[in-house]
């Protein structure tokens, strides 16, 4: 395949550069020091950074090649924008480390969580525990009824808003928050308070520790305010559950154990070098809520924006839903694997509007630059879901091909992938199957983005809902009224 040959050639060319940079990351002072832009003494390249980091890093890649370094304050950063180099990076444990921005440290009890934890036994044990206890196939299957109930609730709510403009991002965010909180502790306390946690704007002080105490962009202050609300929720939820488990509260013994309960039962076990206790539990819960809500709601909003912008694609996916689900049924999670065109639309949307353009910072893997590279993707600026129908073998979410990695790859690959993929597909399929969506009168859709660790639409998407002719039959048939 042409793409494979291209990747192999790039790989050979870049191997030496990669080796040099790895030595520098390991602190080898004799390594040559000439790949990448120069900066000022002490501040390095910081004063020259532009707000849309992924665009700026791509421009630099055009000048310095697919791997270069730049000094940001006291930190040496490496930026990679070629699939073949990503392949090499991911094999090296040193690149599985994390470099948490200030905003992240404030929100996770100083690196007790999984997302921002450095690569060490503590991270490995926390991650294993999370995957084993929450995300096993059995657990995901068993929690389907909870997701189903949450999705039905959205349908009922939207039905009450027919003809009104709806903020799609908000609807989806609250739904995802409910789904996740239900899985975690069987409740939906304070969903609205989680908003804004994934913003993580790049902060100048992230790159220049000396500036940290001045809190240059006010992010730490902002995050502390949000965090105090979130901590309140976690304190209440965890506190109540502990009381219940210790016999002081009312016990609902007939239902499945939820994730919080499982975690509380594991208190006292050794995780990494520490004893697993309430601070670790809270840090993990926070990761899951943030990791699972902002990413999924952002991508669903982008998919809906693309569909509203492209009526023919919308018609085609509506037809697929009618063919697969029918007009008398509602979408069940079990059929989403048959929705091939919707799946291709979601994948193409991940390519054009990836929620994490630089993945989570360790080395900067500039995926945005790869997705926009005509050497890697044909007509990269065009929305063409069919490219995913034509190459289902290589272009999946598991990191099979290094040119497409919406969920990351290697040791740090997103553990929430099986749940995230299901939630996105299930929600989109339901919204499109039961409702018609239109823009407000005279409104044009904007497809521009706003940079952040999570990249959202710069303009909120409002769409007016109309019910499809078959909605009443479907709802009646399934006791949803
Ligand atoms: C559309 C949905 C999602 C997307 C696009 C997404 C994407 C990502 C990406 C790109 C990473 C970083 C991977 C890397 O550095 O190579 C990540 C990490 C992570 N995600 Fe997700 N994610 C999604 C849903 C979820 C869900 C539903 C959960 C939890 C239930 C979750 C939990 C996590 C955690 C805990 C990590 C940190 C893993 C580690 O550092 O070891 N994510 N995710």
UniProtKB/TrEMBL annotation:
<keyword id="KW-0479">Metal-binding</keyword>
<keyword id="KW-0560">Oxidoreductase</keyword>
<protein>
    <submittedName>
        <fullName>Cytochrome P450 CYP2 subfamily</fullName>
    </submittedName>
</protein>
<dbReference type="GO" id="GO:0020037">
    <property type="term" value="F:heme binding"/>
</dbReference>
<dbReference type="GO" id="GO:0004497">
    <property type="term" value="F:monooxygenase activity"/>
</dbReference>
<dbReference type="GO" id="GO:0005506">
    <property type="term" value="F:iron ion binding"/>
</dbReference>
<dbReference type="InterPro" id="IPR002401">
    <property type="entry name" value="Cyt_P450_E_grp-I"/>
</dbReference>
<keyword id="KW-0408">Iron</keyword>
<feature type="binding site" description="axial binding residue">
    <location>
        <position position="414"/>
    </location>
    <ligand>
        <name>heme</name>
    </ligand>
</feature>
<comment type="similarity">
    <text>Belongs to the cytochrome P450 family.</text>
</comment>
<dbReference type="InterPro" id="IPR036396">
    <property type="entry name" value="Cyt_P450_sf"/>
</dbReference>
<keyword id="KW-0349">Heme</keyword>
<dbReference type="InterPro" id="IPR001128">
    <property type="entry name" value="Cyt_P450"/>
</dbReference>
<dbReference type="Pfam" id="PF00067">
    <property type="entry name" value="p450"/>
</dbReference>
<dbReference type="GO" id="GO:0016020">
    <property type="term" value="C:membrane"/>
</dbReference>
<dbReference type="GO" id="GO:0016705">
    <property type="term" value="F:oxidoreductase activity, acting on paired donors, with incorporation or reduction of molecular oxygen"/>
</dbReference>
<dbReference type="InterPro" id="IPR017972">
    <property type="entry name" value="Cyt_P450_CS"/>
</dbReference>
<keyword id="KW-0503">Monooxygenase</keyword>
